[in-house]
Each structure stands twice: as C-alpha cells, then as structure tokens.
Amino acid sequence: MSKQVLFIQGGGNDGYDADARLVDSLQQALGVPYSIRYPRLQTDESLPDFGWLRQIGDELEKLSDEGILVAHSLGAALLLRYLSENKLSTKAYGVFLLATPFWTGQEDWVQGLTLQADFAQCLPPASRFFFYHCRDDEEVPFDHLTTYRKKLPTAMFREIDRGGHQFENSLDVVAQDIKGQSN
C-alpha cells in the first residue's frame, strides 16, 4: 500500500511549474512506496488568502487515513495557517515546510496571509513539523526560519547552506526525514 504525500505549491505566476521539479525530485528520492498528489491551486487575487485556504482544505479532505504534508513558500505559510485554524479529519504523519515566509505588517494584502498570534498552540498536537530553508534564498529571507524556531521550539529545523528558493530542485534531505517519520 502506498503512502500518501500531498504537496502544496508555492505562489507566483510560475509557482506550479517551478515546483513540479521539486515534486519530481521528492518522488524520485522517496521511491515506490510513496505516491505524491500535486494539485494546481488557482489564485483569486480578489480574496485575502488568494482562495488557497479553501482549496488546501479540500485537498486535505481527500486524504484517506494518514498522510504526509509537504508545502513550499506561500503554500507552506498557508498550509500552516490552515492547520492552526482548522481541525483535520485525518492524521498527518508529518508536515514538511520549505522556505516558509512568516508574514508581518499592516498592509491589506498581508492580512489574509498572517498567522494568529497563538498559532503554535493551535496546531495538531500529534503532527511533527519540519522546516527547511536555504541560507541563500533570495525570495524568503533566511531569518524567517529563526522566527519559526522561536515560535515552534519543538519542530525540527534544517538549515541548508545553498540551494536558493528552489533548493536546487533537490529534496533528498526532505525525503530522508519523511522516510524517518513514516516508517
């Protein structure tokens, strides 16, 4: 029986296509016992969260039993927000978040993306959280990882020296952690 992985894409006009290479890398590193579902999220710029929270919820509902959640960039931030504001009907083996922005500020466009002040206490208690960030990420500053480390001290944090925002399209380190969690 294959293990389910749900991969949530990053944002931007080419986010889905750019992250498809990450999905390919992860599938290759995980191998046959894992099956990755990679839905294309539609962006509605008239909504504060771009309409992604509802779509993420819909995708999570499609998981049968237990799943593995992986998300990149904007998708990672919104998956974290969804998990902190909603109850999952299934258990997540682990939540693996790549280059996750920590949104702050008073601008209108940021309000639909920010986490609640107590988000860390509202996350599913049975799920393990892993954060990955490359020091040379030019899209999401590396210090966002430091912010998450302060807010979620029980999570695992992987600092990667180089790889940029797209991790040089190699998610071997993520695959190793997934295999360690789901065995």
Describe this structure in words.
The chain is an alpha/beta fold. Strands 2-1-3-4-5-6 form a six-stranded parallel beta sheet, sandwiched between helices. It is 36% helix and 20% strand. The chain contains seven helices and six strands; from the N terminus they run βαβαβαβααβαβα.
Helical amount: 25-40%
Radius of gyration: 15 Å
Kindly name the structural category: alpha/beta
Mean pLDDT metric: 93
Annotation field: number of helices: 7
Strands of the widest sheet, in order across it, are 2-1-3-4-5-6
Tally of DSSP β-strands: 6
The main sheet comes to: 6 strands, parallel
Shape: globular
* N- to C-terminal distance: 13 Å
Q: Could you state the order of secondary-structure elements as H and E? A: EHEHEHEHHEHEH
Flag low-confidence runs.
none
Strand content: 15-25%
Task: Give the gist of this structure.
It is built from 7 helices and 6 strands, in the order βαβαβαβααβαβα.
Feature tags:
alpha/beta; six-stranded parallel beta sheet; 7 helices
Protein topology:
Blueprint: E1 3-8, H1 15-30, E2 34-37, H2 52-61, E3 66-72, H3 74-85, E4 91-98, H4 108-111, H5 119-122, E5 128-134, H6 143-151, E6 156-160, H7 172-182
Parallel strand pairs: 1-2, 1-3, 3-4, 4-5, 5-6
Helix pairs in contact: 1-7, 2-3
